[in-house]
Amino acid sequence: ALSSAASDVYKRQIQSIASKIPGISIRYAYDIQTNFHIVEVSPESIRRGSEEYMEMEYNLCNEFQEKFPEEDLLVSDPDKINNMENLIFEI
User: Fold this and answer.
1) Terminal C-alpha separation, the chain
2) How far is CA 47 from CA 34, 61, 64, in A?
3) Cα torsion for 3, 53, 19, 59, to the nearest 10°?
4) What sign does the CA torsion over 3, 57, 49, 89 have?
5) Which 3 state secondary structure label does DSSP give 50?
6) Strand partners, 17
7) 7 pLDDT exceeds 90?
8) Bridging pattern class, strands 36-42 and 25-31
9) Could you tell me if 72 and 35 are in contact, meaning their C-beta atoms sit under 8 angstroms apart?
10) Mean of pLDDT values over 8-31
């Protein structure tokens, strides 16, 4: 089940990342079937080309695992196989 505490933490962290990285686009959804939090980040040139962003993504994943060890997170580029139907946040 979707943890509102987890999704609130994510929204704050995503807003913080977006405010620091110009030109980034982030979508956050929760896949009910797999119980995964899915964060899609684009463009790929930022996702894999910006040291600053990559460090923030690394910190986001680590912090999330520490706070919510029972929750699963997927950070990826936009992909049609990701179930983004339950979109929680987009920036």
Assistant:
1) 24
2) 24, 14, 18
3) 40
4) positive
5) coil
6) none
7) no
8) antiparallel
9) yes
10) 93
Residue 42's pLDDT is: 97
Q: State yes or no: pLDDT of 91 exceeds 90.
A: yes
- Is residue 72 within 8 Å of residue 37, measured between CB atoms? yes
Both tokens of 38, joined, read 């899915």
Q: What are the tens digits of pLDDT across the range 43-78?
A: 999 999 999 999 999 999 998 899 889 889 999 999
pTM (two decimals): 0.90
State the Cα–Cα distance between residues 30 and 82, nearest whole angstrom.
10
Q: Which residues contact 46 (CB under 8 A, 6 or more apart)?
A: 21, 23, 24, 53
Tokens of 49: 């080309």
